[in-house]
C-alpha cells in the first residue's frame, strides 16, 4: 500500500545580487540599492523590516570595505527574500583571514560596536567561508508572525 503524496505549497525565493567597489561610496550604494530592492519586493521604505535591513547592510558593507578590503577587489551583497518567512543578507569580501567577532566594548572604545548592532537586529548571524577565497557574513531576519 502506498502513502498518498502530500502537496506542499510552492515557496518563491527572490534573490538580488550585486558587486560594489570596496570604497565608502560602494558601501553607501549597497545600502541604497538594498532598500530600493526591498521596496520592489513590497517591503516599503520606512517599514520596520526596511529600517532593520538598512542598518544591517550599512554595517556589514562598511565592515567589508574597512576590514575586508583587498585592493582591486569588490565586495558582494546578496539579498534572499522568502515572503512572510525570511530575509537573508549576505555580504562577501575576499579577505578570509580577517573574521569578525562580536565582543563587548568599553564605553570609551572607539570601535567594535557594529557587530553588537548586527547581533541586536538580526534573528541570527554567522560568518561563512567563501569559495574559492574570502568570507561571507550572513545576517537573517525572521519575518513570520
Structure description:
It contains 3 helices and 5 strands; from the N terminus they run βααββαββ. The protein has 145 residues and is α+β, with helices and mostly antiparallel strands. It has a 5-stranded antiparallel beta sheet, covered by helices on one side. β2 (75-82) and β3 (86-93) form a beta hairpin. The longest helix has 20 residues, at 48-67. The chain is globular, with a radius of gyration of 17 Å.
Tell me the β content.
25-35%
Shape: globular
DSSP strand tally:
5
| Spatial ordering of strands, largest sheet | 1-2-3-5-4
Compute the average pLDDT. 87
**Distance between the amino and carboxyl termini:** 39 Å
Unreliable stretches, pLDDT < 50, 5 or more residues?
none
**How is the biggest beta sheet arranged?**
5 strands, antiparallel
Query: Percent range for helical residues?
Result: 25-40%
Structural class: alpha+beta
Order of helices and strands: EHHEEHEE
Rounded to an integer in angstroms, the radius of gyration calculated over CA atoms is: 17 Å
Counting DSSP H or I runs of 4 or more residues, the number of helices is 3
Keywords summarizing the entry:
145 residues; 26% strand; 3 helices; alpha+beta
